[in-house]
Design a protein that fits this description.
Order of helices and strands: EHEHHEHEHEEH
Number of strands: 6
Strand content: 5-15%
Shape: globular
Distance between the termini: 29 Å
């Protein structure tokens, strides 16, 4: 298995840093190939601008159009091209990050914004009466899996179904479904550690064991059963879920998960 770890934390001695290091050592010891994109160490540029697209920008910047033209012309900046090549190399992608303000750190979102260009991660495939492009289960990155490894400062009860912050699965849905599944990557159930601001040494030892177990079962873990877009569950072109497919009482984000 070839695994790309995209790591987003500014402190190498942080819990996130320890989890990243443990992932590298565990996977390599099991015979897997591992590459790491340490975004802070790389001084990753987090904002999209015209400099990303070079000569393919003409007149007013249009990010989708110009990123697609630059991708097809091979004129994207070297840092973006390198990350796209890593994604194409990988079988599995691990995003290692702390939950900050209900989402990923800005530097990681900036990695997505710059690397997931038009004609690479989206804007591919046939648009017709029966298909709406290759996305949500199809696309350039289909055949790959991804795992979110997330540290959360607050206790688990705050992120439960009736918790004040909302269910953790709902908070992660935009990443799982909107960033990963959109270009075809199948997300695995996330690895989430709660209460990390007050974690003791003993608690870390337990967390490390659980993390090692998740890493060693990546290949056998079933992905989240999101509904593919073009295989009958959605009306086209409205992309509304067909009536009667949802389990009784299920609403919201859960509608887009089978079973």
């Amino acid at each position: 298995m070839k695994t790309l770890i995209v790591y987003a934390h500014p402190e190498p001695k942080s819990l996130n840093g320890s989890l990243k290091d443990l992932a590298v050592s565990t996977l390599e010891a099991a015979g897997h190939e591992v590459r790491v994109s340490d975004l802070y160490a790389m001084n990753w540029k987090a904002v999209v601008d015209a400099a990303d697209y070079g000569p393919e920008v003409s007149g007013r910047l249009l990010v989708a159009r110009d990123s697609g033209r630059a991708f097809e012309a091979g004129t994207l900046t070297q840092d973006v091209r390198a990350e796209q090549e890593k994604l194409l190399w990988a079988d599995t992608v691990i995003l290692q990050f702390p939950l900050w303000w209900y989402s990923m750190p800005a530097i990681l979102k900036g990695w997505v914004d710059r690397v997931f260009t038009y004609r690479f991660a989206y804007g591919v495939g046939e648009h017709s009466d029966t298909r709406y492009g290759e996305r949500f289960g199809e696309g350039t990155l289909a055949g790959r899996k991804a795992l979110l490894s997330v540290t959360v400062g607050g206790p688990e009860s705050h992120y439960a179904a009736r918790g004040i912050n909302g269910p953790i699965d709902d908070l992660l849905f935009p990443i799982h479904h909107g960033i990963l599944y959109y270009p075809g990557i199948e997300p695995l159930p996330p690895f989430v550690l709660h209460g990390t601001d007050r974690m003791t040494g003993e608690e870390y030892a337990d967390a490390a064991k659980a993390w090692e177990q998740r890493l060693l079962t990546l290949e056998s873990t079933e992905p989240i059963a999101f509904r593919p877009q073009n295989f009958g569950d959605y009306e086209i072109p409205s992309l509304h879920l067909r009536e009667g497919l949802e389990p009784a009482g299920r609403t919201g984000f859960g509608l887009h998960v089978r079973g």
